[in-house]
Amino acid sequence: MIRVIVTDIEGTTSSISFVHEVLFPYASKHIADFVRAGHGDTPAIREQLDAVAKAAGLPADDIEGLIAVLQSWIAEDRKETALKALQGMLWERGYQQGDFRGHVYPDAAEYLQRWHDRGLRLFVYSSGSVKAQKLIFGYSEAGDLTPFFSGYFDTRIGAKREASSYRNIIDELGVEPQTVLFLSDVEAELEAAEAVGIRTAWLVRDGELPETGRPVMRNFEDVDKLLMQR
Ligand SMILES: CSCCC(=O)C(=O)COP(=O)(O)O
Ligand SMILES: [Mg+2]
């Protein structure tokens, strides 16, 4: 019986276009000023810049070089933990100022509430930082959805296509893998979760249904029907 749901964000609870056409361009536009203003006296920013410098093989004081690296990572959608941490800090201002609100599909907002009320424990696992996860759900178009979640995982637990990440999540939650349902739009992530015994559901929000033996879910209502069968 499923007792825990772990959900991806981009392409699952929320549209890919919101992430790629709103959040990433906002980060790209503001990252340079953010880093120039914060690198000297904000330890949380400095810590992430040191990680960027190490990963890129640049001196930690090459601020313009680090900005160029960050811009290129945003453009190529690199799931680098330090970039994701900086993006989360940057987006906080955008959400607080009302520049945008987090996109969450109406069916996702509805069933997150229903599943929570039914006693299921809900968690997020996204490449976006935990801060960014709390922001997209906290400032969502459907209101503050964070009360429905029991916890959040980002790439500090491991990369989303690695089976070991899902083992780490199971260990952290202290549950049996077959009691967990993982939702994602990326088949490689589902395969990694399945490798450690986690149940999965594949969200295909838009476009043609792929030819696969795997059951495909168009929305969270379909996921709920699957839950009822298990
Ligand atoms: C938490 S909202 C920003 C999403 C993000 O930065 C990202 O890389 C999306 O990754 P996901 O694992 O949710 O597909
Ligand atoms: Mg996704």
UniProtKB/TrEMBL annotation:
CDD domains named among the record's database cross-references: HAD_EP
Cofactor binding description: Binds 1 Mg(2+) ion per subunit.
Catalysed transformations (reactions): 5-methylsulfanyl-2,3-dioxopentyl phosphate + H2O = 1,2-dihydroxy-5-(methylsulfanyl)pent-1-en-3-one + phosphate
Domain of life: Bacteria
Top EC class for this record: hydrolase
Cofactors, names only: Mg(2+)
Family: Belongs to the HAD-like hydrolase superfamily. MasA/MtnC family.
PANTHER family, A to Z: ENOLASE-PHOSPHATASE E1 (PTHR20371:SF1)
Known function: Bifunctional enzyme that catalyzes the enolization of 2,3-diketo-5-methylthiopentyl-1-phosphate (DK-MTP-1-P) into the intermediate 2-hydroxy-3-keto-5-methylthiopentenyl-1-phosphate (HK-MTPenyl-1-P), which is then dephosphorylated to form the acireductone 1,2-dihydroxy-3-keto-5-methylthiopentene (DHK-MTPene).
Complex formation: Monomer.
Protein name stated in the entry: Enolase-phosphatase E1
UniProt source species: Marinobacter profundi
